[in-house]
DNA sequence: GCATAAATACGTATTTATACTTAACAAATT
DNA sequence: AATTTGTTAAGTATAAATACGTATTTATGC
């Protein structure tokens, strides 16, 4: 345990203060600690079990989350409860888009897809930090601009790709986002979750996976998916992505 | 003509300096003029005729545009040249998402859909302004966060709505964005453009419009579309939008 | 370790939605 | 008047969703 100069606060093991946090992808860690010293007060750590929902669509907004450790899916629920996964998030990423703005309610839901530790910053604290630190606000802006880029890219994809292409696109996205561990994609998702991201049904995903397995492009052991020929997959959707690879 | 204290520069009529600009929705106008005085130097005004493309997908990024006057469509071109309109922009809005960042190339294209005047800010000027003015950066961030929200909402729509619903959704979006003038939507779009925004084909749009006309929900006189029963339209897609109305 | 439930992996047939094609005609533009 | 663009319609092809069934594998509780 590191000794901070001031009082040691009561903390669970997972409740790491910003000053000792290892997560240098975190915009807060990157920017705020360079100037002020007392940032430990700002945040609260929250632990989520796999499957636990920590943002509910329509609930009042009161802050913003960072993923300290773990993985999260961000979604919107449509008619008849069909869920559209708008993105996944891993360590260092921000959840709760407008947690500091004028929006009254969350327009997305978020569920931990494995055991996850979140850092929570309240609206007011964050707003103050952003307005007093131009670099921090700038980095936040860049984060959103990037996400916007990706999202608009996805709008195009979904409206122009076939189911097969969308499933492949999702596989490549997961590969980029979470990478590979021991040959398998380093995240465990159900077929339903692949479907919810690709904007199709579970059955279609299973069918496409079967075809891809037959074609030796991927292989699977239960929920663990391995990509055997990433270039082969990329080729199939390359015509859709002239300029962007994100 | 207002008299600025310093030298009067050579300017075309449309090339309005920030100091006399009437566009108080503009983030630059709103934030920067309050502090610095010499902003007229920062920007260049560019005039576009209807139909003129001023951002080409894949071209090198060197700055960012504001719409001073007029209307613009922002799109991505997919396979076989099919174009997906990701959004429309009107006075005060920003075009060219990452015009100040590290991105090398524009990932979107932009075309003026009527005669338009743009203000152009170079990458470096803008970056400097953002990093020295937290409120400006904050406002930019909010703009992108909003756009992200809308875009993710659209991802959901496209993957869960029927063609009819998507066309209605587009009509309502246009209504919110551009409003009504003399009973008609205050923008002239082709059926193709409605289709490109709704992620469908021109013929489908025409078919849906026909049906909506029969049902007295809309009426049309050529390209001018009037919404007769906005609540009726909203009802059809209300199940998809529990929480968000943007 | 075993029983049971749940998820996964197919197959196939039906229905529906959407896309594509063509053609004829109207309207607007030059 | 000629040409382009927009509109409407109808028919066909295709893609996708839906609804089955059923074996197999994988979790989970006891």
From TrEMBL, chains A, B:
InterPro entries: cNMP-bd_dom, cNMP-bd_dom_sf, Env_Response_Regulators, HTH_CRP, RmlC-like_jellyroll, WH-like_DNA-bd_sf, WH_DNA-bd_sf
GO cellular component annotations of the record: cytosol
Domain of life according to the entry: Bacteria
Gene3D superfamilies registered for this protein in UniProt: Jelly Rolls (2.60.120.10), Winged helix-like DNA-binding domain superfamily/Winged helix DNA-binding domain (1.10.10.10)
Record key words, sorted: DNA-binding, Transcription, Transcription regulation
PROSITE patterns: CNMP_BINDING_3 (PS50042), HTH_CRP_2 (PS51063)
Occurrences of domain HTH crp-type (ranges): 161-231
GO molecular function: DNA binding; DNA-binding transcription factor activity
Domain Cyclic nucleotide-binding intervals: 39-147
Alphabetized Pfam families for the sequence: cNMP_binding, HTH_Crp_2
Descriptive protein name: Crp/Fnr family transcriptional regulator
Annotated organism of origin: Neotamlana sargassicola
